[in-house]
Every structure is written in structure tokens, then in C-alpha cells.
UniProtKB/TrEMBL annotation:
Record's keyword annotation contains Cell division: no
Keywords assigned by UniProt, alphabetized: Isomerase
Residues of the Mannose-6-phosphate isomerase type II C-terminal domain: 67-165
UniProt xrefs under Pfam families: MannoseP_isomer
A GO MF term: isomerase activity
Keyword Isomerase: yes
Origin superkingdom: Bacteria
Protein name, per record: Phosphoheptose isomerase
Amino acid sequence: MNIEKNLSNKEVFVEIRKWLSSNGYSVIAHDDNRPWGGFFVIDEKQIDTFRKQFFGEVAFSDFQLKNKLSPKILMVAPGKRLSWQYHHRRAEVWKLVAGEGGIVRSDTDEEGEVMEMETGKVVHLEKGVRHRLVGLENWGVVAEIWMHTDPGNPSDEEDIVRVQDDFNR
């Protein structure tokens, strides 16, 4: 997949939706109005296909496979940043699948430098690790799986602890 940096948010969403459809994925939710870009939520029933396509090299425990994994595709716009954040009830795995993306991470609230993500390389984010996805000069397309650490109370958007946010959320 090749995403051109001069495409609008709507055009990128159309391209990604076509690509997901051509790969047989069912999108159960999406948000194309995030100030940093947006995301697609893939049907949980397709987690095996999603996992094999994007995270075949990651070993998932029986515990993890028995619980919700919340597969998503994130799109971060050039020059935009998600909030500097962490979570109490989930770890995450990311993989840059197209375009360009950067990541910042730390065990403390102190934000370090942006490290360029490598296409196809898995990034592990443990529960509590501060992190931020950053758009570089082109759109970044990232596959993501949430690793819920409390199956009785799975993580959701309310489990985002924002340390800093460019959009004052």
C-alpha cells in the first residue's frame, strides 16, 4: 500500500478502507475525525487473520488469545501527534505497515526524542509505558492490537491517561 503525503484525511480513509476490504476485513467502527488522523476497528472475529498478517512473529499466550485483542488500523497525519499517554489495563503491539511514523516512549512522564518506526518491525508497549505515535513527513499507517491485562474489565478509550495532548483533550 502506498499512501501519498498530499492526500486529505478523507482520501486516506477511502484508500485504507479499500485496502482493508480487498484483504477481506470487516470494519465494525471507524473514526475519521480525530485531530491527528483516525482509525478503523476490525471485527474481533477476524483476529486470527489480522494477527497472522501483521503480527505473525509475536507469540501470544493462551490467556491473551482467549481474551479480546481489539485489532485496529491507525492513521496518523503528517506532522500530527497522538497524546503522550499510558494505560492501566492494557499493553499494545504496533507495526508500521505503510508510510512513515515515529514513536516516543518512556517509563516516566518525561518525553524523550522521536524515534522513526521501521516498516514491518513490531513495537511492544507494556502497560504503564508512556507512548506517543507521531506523524512524520507522510501519513503513517499502523496495525495495532490491545493486550488487555484485566479480562474482567477490558481496556477502552476511558483507559487513556493523557500526560500531554496537543489538542487539549
